[in-house]
Specification:
three-stranded antiparallel beta sheet; 10 strands; 62% helix; globular; 601 residues; mainly alpha
Amino acid sequence: MPRIHLGSWAEDAVSWLQTHLSWLFDVINTVLTGMYDGVNAVLGAPQPLLMAGILAVVAWWLRGLLPAVLTFAGFALVDSFGLWEAAMSTLSLVLVASLITLLVAVPLGIWAARSSKVSGALRPVLDVMQTMPAFVYLIPGVMFFSIGPIPGLIATVVFSMPPGVRMTELGIRQVDGELVEAATAFGTTPRDTLTRVQLPLALPTIMAGVNQVIMLALSMVVIAGMAGAGGLGEAVYAAVTKVDIGGGVESGLAVVVLAIYLDRMTGALNQRVSPLGRRAAAKAAAVARGPVLLRYRPGTAVATVGVVVLALVAGGMNLARGGDDGQNVAAGANVGHGRGIKLGYFPWDEAVATTYLWQNVLEDRGYKPDVKQLDPGPLYTALAQGQMDVQFDSWLPTTHKQYMDRYGDRLTDLGAWYGPTSLELSVPDYVKGVDSLEDLKGKSAQFGGKIVGIESSAGMMATLNDRVLKEYGLDGEYKVVSSSTSSMLADLDRAIKKHEPIVTTLWSPHWAYGKHQLKKLKDPKGAWGKGEEIHAVAKKDFGKDFPEVTAWLKDFKMSEKDLASLEVEIQNGGKGKEKESARRWLDAHPGLADKLAPVRG
């Protein structure tokens, strides 16, 4: 069977669309960004507990007093985790994506219910949309719209649309045909038959589809955190890549709170809008027992008044709290004048250390750095598209060669700040008889037949698979397991505690060599290549937009001793405290900030 190059055709198609329809993507991006920002501004404006109160009033109106109390407690818990802004960002993305999805899915479902040909044509399309791995949708989203909430929103719409279409079609098709015939016999027009007979009777099924759309949208926006969508997805992704158990539990519980709230509210909304639902609710209320207060649900007017009052209080508090939120920066050092600058990093230790170091330095100089974690692929794409400003961890010329080859003409190399480095495979020092890559031959059973790697997108992984394993005859004997840097380190720590043999990818400098007794496997054939340098790489117009920062970064250098001590300080500071840890390290080195970012006077 000849090789079908479907992947290359898809890449050509994406490239053609980027070249010829960029204006359309810009329009879509502007419209969707405006919708998302508007909803996020409304949800994020009130104080967290006031917004929790508004959501609790909605729960009281739809379900009763006890659900309202649980709603307030759940969202108060999210606020106590410090995840309120992330939760509101996620809720905004879910609401906007669900609204767009339903505006498309319900008409398509109605059309499919009234035409067998349309139904047959839509079915395979919906099958593909629903079964395609959700991560795949992020790739064209990032290519067309760069990183941020919009790729996640587009991917969410595509992924969550099938149940909306299917359930709408199912609900209308399940309406008794005799009722439709009776309506037609009495002279009812097809439009009135749809709006007055079919849709009211199909509403419970349609609302079940709405519920599924919202649940799938919530699951997808969490995945979209990998593409910089922000919100709880970014918090979950950061916790996974850093093996942060506490952060993962907290962000996961925040997602659970949102999911339960949206699920219960959309389910209860069916009883409010559906004639059959109202009839069922009335029957249930007639036979219900228990305290009247717990069963009381305010009317629509009372609930609306409660929401409006809380919203007015929130607005008044925002006005009273208004004022200058600017940073206290010395007048002579205020080079940035509050200007925003976007710093990207992927979860490699030297990247984390230098990014948060420069976040503190830039804040001292009057800038407002926005730090975002991404995988290498999306980060380089964002830099090339001008959606991110700079990142500090480009390993050149080997590890990140693939990205520089692809985007080099749209990037600015600000020079190396550290080097030379080295890439290697390492084993614990208690593993005897394995001191070189040549010694791994024929010993795969000892290591479970695997080499524990890092992110599959890292150039180091490509070098290992394409060159190192083949050079030493290890290809086929060992399987390279892609994970993440933090997962690799966690697996290494687990193996050492159990005194088990393990072989992992590592590089120098790295704090793991100070924490554990490890052996760097020698590379007599030079398959890894020469040592690399770590560069700061920025968007193409970075020098024009940030001339002062460009000059600082071109002169930026760090010794192995300073970098190691900074990484250790951040490790000791704990997860989620990287900025504070970098600040402590910077304060412990008087005069360093002035050396890194000198200003006149």
